[in-house]
């Protein structure tokens, strides 16, 4: 479904990513793990069209999307849920959710999509008229995920969905991600919470200093000595 071939990208003349090769098959849950500053967010921003690659190819369902405008990439079916959620704090939950569907035929089908999202997150449904900033961190993350789902993406990308959340809420967020994956949406997650994300994923990549240093099944990475020492503290 998605393929990055030899992608180098960064900010200005400085490459953060160097020769990144990565693929996601339809229906998979794939994760990119790595420490601070490894280039995980930059990878998602590059796929989303927010950062233009300096070199390489990004193919989504056969089409090269490298250099395409980010709104056109959303229209193709790729949505990113940003780090730290980035809701509109003064807007209601309902308005935040509606923002997720701003591209697709504006009002057409909006009501039905809102109903689908509310069915997925009943707690959010009870808070549709509340201002987003009045919600707990966990609830805000659910709204951010719901907003991403409003675009009916085929590939949903999560940037550190567990950031700043209590462990019990993190577990709920990963349950939701697994539920989304079971409905047929393909998922790509970048995380510093390596254990939890590998538990949820089919396959994973380790990104270090902007380069892919390992690629394997999630189970193999969980059992790998380097991953255990460097990321799991074992
Ligand atoms: P973190 O988990 O800390 O967000 P990350 O793996 O997601 O880490 P990136 O956010 O992709 O890493 O950052 C990789 C490198 O790119 C860092 O050295 C960072 O300072 C740099 N960088 C990120 N955003 C910008 C920007 N807008 N302009 C210049 N440099 C940037």
TrEMBL record:
Biological processes annotated in GO: L-amino acid transport
Residues passing through the membrane, by range: none
The ABC transporter domain, residue ranges: 2-234
Superkingdom to which the source organism belongs: Bacteria
Pfam family name, one: ABC_tran
Keyword Nucleotide-binding: yes
Claim: ATP-binding is one of the keywords in the record: yes
Alphabetized UniProt keyword annotations: Amino-acid transport, ATP-binding, Nucleotide-binding, Transport
Coiled-coil region: none
GO molecular function, a single term: ATP hydrolysis activity
Family designation: Belongs to the ABC transporter superfamily.
Protein name (Swiss-Prot/TrEMBL): Amino acid ABC transporter ATPase
